[in-house]
Amino acid sequence: MKITFISNYLTHHQIPFSEKMTELSGVEYYFVSTQPMEEERIAMGWSQETYPYEIKAYQSMELKKKAEKLAEESDVVIIGSAPDSYIDARLKQKRLTFRYAERFYKQGLNIKNIGHAFIGSLLHHGKYRRSPLYMLCASAYTVADCAVFGNYIGKTFQWGYFPQFEEYDIADLMNQKAANTHQKTSTKIKILWAGRVIQWKHPEAVLKLAEQLKMSGYAFEIQMIGTGEMQESVEQMIVEKNISNCVSFHGAMKPELVRKYMEQADIFVFTSDFNEGWGAVVNEAMNSGCAVVASHAIGSVPFLIKNKKNGLIYQNGNQEELQKKVMWLLDHPDECRRIGKNAYLTIQNLWNAEVAASRFVKLSEMLLKGEDTEYLFADGPCSRAEIIKNDWYTGNE
Fold first, then answer.
1. Amino acid 392: pLDDT
2. C-alpha–C-alpha distance, residues 378 and 128, integer Å
3. Which among 25, 98, 163, 282 is least buried, having the fewest CB atoms inside 10 angstroms?
4. What is the per-residue burial (b if ≥16 Cβ within 10 Å, else e) of 62-88?
């Protein structure tokens, strides 16, 4: 089976999946990059290494033609951030194709943008409605966005990003973290936040959290990693709130170094709103055995986290609930470690590149044969993605 993945460029979030695809028997796999990586990503430490299965279509007309031929002739194509021209011909031939997307309407729909959204939906999705085009949802909210204009009904599957899985002796890892989880003592709980320091990731929520924890007498330290337009204001707030003795702010780091901080952290806090398409740091923090406390608005959270089983979910923007859930972990160190261990097992057993690759091939084989895939997988990658109700987080207490 020849499978081609087409997107703007190959990132460290897609490399593990691509590597696992190349290892599968009977699979001939290619990744087409349609444009050079942005300088901003390179500055953040994203790799520019070229892989044997990668075709950089922007480098020459010869490579572009090779990419276009693969797009038309492959048994299966996945297309992410790339022009529709790559799939027009194959869909006219009724060839199996998957879109790969985060949510479409991160800012919501209103009278000002709904007309533009409708036209875009018709041009990029609606016109292919009768074609064998399916949606790999890289956000739990993609399904609802698709359904607004009646697209991909019954054709949506859970997907996401699959960062490199790091294997640990989970007992040893959790024992190392256990030394930190004695609340209100001289031993400090380690809390981590990592991401671009921009408005919609809400780093200020972490500073408010630190202020409240300090006032409540908890022994803790918060590490913040990242850079962005809010960096100066965040550093100023740390001083103004008198929390510099418990909050350390670091700049940008390479992904592998961020992982080292995750390995040492007891709790990972993720505060983004609905602008966070997926949020691969959730995968990485869970892989590192952290008890993740995350906003329900983050695209990966409803797929990855089962509340109080392998993480904690708070309602987006609810500062009081965020603080309450972090305090609960500090007050229940055994639960903190149990949740962190279950988080690791979730990534080890289900949400990783190896599982995603093998399941994607199985799903493709069944669709090519015209077989029913509704009950193929109960949960995780390639299981059916359904619309999440607005009150999905009710009952989390």
1. 46
2. 27
3. 25
4. eebeebbebbbebebbbbbebeeebbe
Measured distance CA(59)–CA(105) in Å, rounded: 32
Read off the pLDDT band of 382 (50, 70, 90): very high
Q: What is the pLDDT of residues 21-49, one digit of tens each?
A: 999 999 999 999 999 877 766 666 666 77
Long-range contacts of 344-347 (CB under 8 A, 24+ apart): 344/168, 344/170, 344/173, 344/286, 344/287, 344/288, 344/289, 345/170, 345/310, 346/286, 346/304, 346/310, 347/165, 347/283, 347/286, 347/287
CB 323 within 8 A of CB 182: no
Q: Read off the tokens for 238.
A: 């740390």
In degrees and rounded to multiples of 5, residue 30 shows phi and psi of: -135, 150
Tokens 């989880």 correspond to what residue? 181
Distance CA 143, CA 135 (A): 8
Distances in Å between the Cα of 113 and the Cα atoms of 118, 123, 279, 395 are 9, 16, 25, 34
Q: What are phi and psi of 7, to 5 degrees?
A: -155, 180
70, containing H or E segment: helix 61-73
Q: Which two tokens stand for residue 20?
A: 């696992």
Measured in degrees and rounded to the nearest 5, phi and psi for residue 172 equal -65, -45
pLDDT digits (tens, 9 = 90+) for 273-282: 999 999 999 9
C-beta of residue 201 within 8 angstroms of C-beta of residue 320: no
Q: Rounded to whole angstroms, what are the CA distances from 134 to 85, 152, 172, 191, 319?
A: 17, 6, 42, 39, 37
- Return all residues near 257 (Cβ < 8 A) that are at least 6 apart: none
First-last CA distance in the chain: 47
Tokens of 171: 């007992």
Angle at 386 between CA 384 and CA 391, to 5 degrees: 145
Residue 154: how many CB atoms within 10 A of its CB?
7
Q: What 3-state DSSP class applies to 4? A: strand
More confident residue, 171 or 393: 171
CB neighbour list of residue 196: distance below 8 Å, 6 or more residues apart: 226, 227, 228
Structure tokens at 154: 């019954």
Q: In sequence order, what are the beta bridge partners of 156?
A: 135
Q: How many CB atoms lie within 10 A of CB 217?
A: 8
Bridge partners of residue 148, in order along the sequence: none
- The two three-digit tokens of residue 153, written as one number: 């009904």
